[in-house]
Amino acid sequence: MIRMTARRSSPPPLSTRVRDRSPGLAAGLLGGVAAAGLGLGAIVVLVMVLWISSPYPDSGPGGALHVAAAVWLLAHGVELIRTDTLSGVPAPMGVTPLLLPVLPVWLVRRAARDATDGGEDGVAVLLSARTAWTGVVLGYLAVAAPVTLFAAGGALRPSWAWAGVCVPLVAMGAAGAGVWTAYGRPVGPLERVLGLLPAGARQLIVGPGARLGGAGLAALAGTVVFAGGGVLLLVVSLLWHGGAVLGSWLELTEGGPGRFAVLLLCLALVPNAVVWAVAYALGPGFVLGAGHLVGPLSSGPAPMLPPFPLLAAVPEPGPGVALHWAVVGVPVLAGVTVGWFVAGAATAGGPEGTWSKGRTAAGAGLAGVLCAVALTGLTAVAGGPLGVAALVRFGPVWWQVAAAVLGWVSVVGVPVALGVRGWRGRAAGSAKVPGAEWWRGALLPLRGRRFSLGRRAGRGGAGAAR
Fold first, then answer.
1. For residues 160 and 146, what is the distance between their CA atoms, to the nearest angstrom?
2. Mean pLDDT: which of 132-146, 198-212, 243-257, 292-306 is highest?
3. Which of 38, 179, 284, 390 could form a disulfide bond with 400, CB atoms 3.0-4.6 angstroms apart?
């Protein structure tokens, strides 16, 4: 009798094994496809509604769908090429309305967060961050690739180089933010990034317990003041040129649907206009075509531009007057804010833990660098070309804005930080100034585990230990 070995059970289907081994990959793929589909669908619905309600549509449904695909790519920062120009020369369109990326970024972030959260039956289970992130990005790009191919057949054609860079970057960045949120916003990635900086700079940006340090909080406050000043300047300019703004809106198109479309475009471009206003207040201003600078000291005559409402609020050509020069109050206030917050961090430890003058000045300078980085990034994406020749450049120049921010913070923020530090030190004596630590409530730790960047050395360490 021959002994037979036990018969092994048949392996499960391949789809079951893949799902069991990497549930985050399947969920991520579906989430990425859904995020891309929802974002594209919202734009398609809006464009089709405007096309249907238009009394004089320029093309059929196919043309409207091509426009919707191009607008969806524009929301990712992709430069578009307009082929139906009067001269026959293709004209680039690189100004991305900064309100457009909000929808795709939010959708991708939420898809990655949901793909990472694999809880069942009320039990929270976090799946592999790398797997979920990879799935969402691949699913999103699987939709973006055919959309790009489809948009290439329309009058607004995407630039292949920009599409190959911008769409993956947006998908990867938003998916990474979603995974990071699902894991409770751990500080490990932040720690690794800050590990590239010198120890002194790390401690000024982020303190022990994953709290914003003096320079980090001051930079955040200064950036908020810059943004608030830009909003104020934009509102004042729109009200001051209210007649011209309203007239250009009525003149640009006829009928309710067309004017509604122009209104939507203006709303989408409001963040761009705020960044332009900040650049104007800083001094470098912005350009309306090659060689046509608009600044507080003087404004050159702009080229022939369409009667667009936001452009109607641009100051008139000619030398600046006292009213134009008053915009310098925005960078002055931002510099004072930076200095005040740095001085608060410098004196928070009491007389024994007060920062030295050199460390206080370094903290204010580092806060200025962080402000410059934030505003430079916004400036770089707030402008771009709108054609060729004279229309090759619109918006502020990023390196000029960076230099202006550093200059204003150095001239205003550093002296204010040193002056307030000295005043508080003399007024406090052996006790702390009442209310000198009002800002400490804003130093909220990031959710998740904490980390320590090490005990501060020297006299600053005594203040940190308190």
1. 13
2. 132-146
3. 284
- pLDDT tens digits, one per residue of 332-355: 999 999 999 999 888 887 776 688
Angle at 98 between CA 94 and CA 102, to 5 degrees: 125
Q: Which residues, 6 or more positions from 414, have their beta carbon under 8 angstroms from its beta carbon?
A: 339, 361, 364, 365
Six token digits for residue 180: 């990071």
pLDDT (tens digit per residue) in 196-240: 677 777 777 776 655 677 888 999 999 999 999 999 999 999 999
Tokens of 286: 């912005």
Whether residue 132 contacts residue 197, with contact meaning beta carbons closer than 8 Å, is answered with no
Q: State how far the alpha carbon of 432 is from the alpha carbons of 300, 344, 351, 438, 466, in Å.
A: 53, 11, 8, 12, 13
Please state, in angstroms and rounded to a whole number, the distance separating the CA atoms of residues 385 and 80: 10
In terms of DSSP bridges, do strands 206-207 and 298-299 run parallel, antiparallel, or are they unpaired? unpaired
Q: DSSP alpha helices (H): ranges in 298-397?
A: 309-312, 322-325, 329-346, 357-382
Task: Give, in order, the Cα–Cα distances in Å from 155 to each of 65, 83, 86.
Answer: 11, 6, 13
Cα distance between residue 402 and residue 425, in whole Å: 33
Q: Phi and psi (nearest 5°) for 314?
A: -70, 140
Which residues are 117's β-sheet partners?
126
Which residue's structure tokens are 């991305």? Answer: 96
> Which helix or strand (DSSP H or E) is residue 120 part of?
none
Could you give the CA distance from residue 388 to residue 367 in angstroms, rounded to a whole number? Answer: 38
Name the strand (E) or helix (H) holding 156. Answer: strand 156-158
User: Which among 77, 68, 82, 81 is positioned nearest to 96, based on CA atoms?
Assistant: 77
Q: Which residues lie below 8 Å from residue 186, measured CB to CB, with a gap of 6+?
A: 180, 448, 449
